[in-house]
Amino acid sequence: MTPQPERKLSPERLKPPKASPSASILLISPSNEILLLRRVKKSSSFASAHVFPGGHIDPDDGPLPPEDDVRLHEDNTAYRTGAIRECFEESGILLAKSRDDQSMLLRLTEEEGHQGRHAIHNKKVRFEDWVRSRGGLPDIQSLHPFTRWLTPANISKRYSTQMYLYFLPLAHPGLPHVLHIPTSDGGVEHTEAEFLPAVEWLSKAEANNIILFPPQFFLLSLVADFLKPNTPDGAETLPTDVLQSQRDALLEFVSTGDPSWGEMCISPTPLKKEGDDLILRLDRPGLEVEGTSRRGDAERVIWVQYKGKEGTSRLKVGWRTDVEPEGLNDKERKEYLETRRKEPESGDRDEGLERALRGRKENL
Prior knowledge:
Blueprint: H1 11-14, E1 19-28, E2 34-39, E3 50-51, E4 54-56, H2 77-91, E5 96-98, H3 110-121, H4 127-133, E6 136-138, E7 144-150, E8 158-167, E9 190-196, H5 198-206, H6 214-224, H7 240-254, E10 265-266, E11 269-274, E12 277-282, E13 297-306, E14 312-319, H8 320-323, H9 330-342, H10 351-363
Parallel strand pairs: 1-8, 7-10
Antiparallel strand pairs: 1-4, 2-3, 2-9, 5-6, 7-8, 11-12, 12-13, 13-14
């Protein structure tokens, strides 16, 4: 056989795909429920999955730093404007303050909203210009950064997604009550739009009734610890002061940590396999920000069992120490992990470790 000359890939072939700037909002209703949209089956990304409202940042949303500038992966006005624009296009809920009364969200008629969504989506008018023509301003100041996610470099379609929290106003006596009813975009990108408690979305995913991808499942798991739907005496909605205290506790949590959840940048990468599970580490910030001070979550992992192109059939958020418990040999560690799988709702993550160590002492 004639030897073939050495062929080298061009630098462009070796270069990972660009991480496209995007933004999403965890939109929280007046009763502290979370909005999710169901993607159409033919979607080029997250097909049939339930996602937070959001999408690509458009040039009209504002200027962004150059592609090779690490500041491209930081919160700024363009990301915030794009997140609010996408939320309006996809759900019909406009997060804009009235210029006449900054304490109130801008109110639109159903027809105004429908025409606006259509015109903005088809780029017949700039989003900010349209909002201003209706007497409003995008409420970018009320967005709370809540992690950034950078798709790993080995994935063909990559995103740099800034996540935000946004709290719709609570109902108060003496103020007009506004119903924020989400609607799909008519099947362009989504077929369903619904508010539900975070714990209900997680339950649906665990029962394989909906598809959630790791970022959505992870953030819902964090939020579910604070926005709890339990009501006293079987009441349909919690008292306003309780709803507000839940929000305050969540915002306090988001501001804590090193880095804080508002500054955290996560690029989920495989840590190891455990049976049928792929365990993702969350501590790495991603290719574009390596070598900077950006970091992810070093304490938690995501357990994933994939089910072909349909998405994920099983997800669970766990502790890194559960995956790599110190002081156990391989057999003891395997027994410990089996205990954790059987008791995913255990209140104390150290109980299984203590049992494993106790078993070691009994066998000595």
